[in-house]
Write a structure and sequence with these properties.
By secondary structure, this protein is mainly α. 51% of the residues lie in helices and 0% in strands. Helix 2 crosses helix 5 and helix 4 packs across helix 5.
């Protein structure tokens, strides 16, 4: 019985997505990279984010992604997980089957860059 239980637990652990790391906080591998932010902006437009969040990510049907008024603290990890896994009970669909983790991180880099620009202009 212990062997079966261990096998099930090991199989479940191996099936976890690579981007979910328990006990550690995910960090954006691109940080403040302007090239990644530019790539993220292209992804923002090509993946249809504009339809809900507007041309400049300041909101439309969906919320403004450039301000600091979020239900949950807008850490890079939270934004990454929201894009990757969607948000249940909302129109925010998961993009894990459409975009790679690298692409999602570039999108996060773009949104954080827009947040910084917004703060600088105030």
């Amino acid at each position: 019985m212990k062997t079966i239980l261990c096998g099930v637990l090991l199989g479940a652990a191996l099936a976890l997505p690579d981007s979910i790391v328990y006990g550690q906080q995910l960090e954006n591998p691109f940080g403040l990279d302007p090239v990644a932010a530019a790539d993220g902006k292209r992804l923002y437009h090509s993946q249809g984010c504009v339809a809900c969040h507007g041309n400049n990510a300041r909101g439309a049907v969906g919320p403004d992604l450039t301000d600091d008024e979020w239900i949950r603290a807008p850490s890079d990890e939270m934004i990454f997980n929201t894009i990757r896994n969607g948000r249940s009970g909302t129109l925010m669909s998961p993009f894990r089957d459409v975009m790679s983790d690298e692409q999602i991180w570039k999108l996060v880099t773009y949104l954080r860059d827009e947040n910084r620009k917004r703060k600088q202009s105030q």
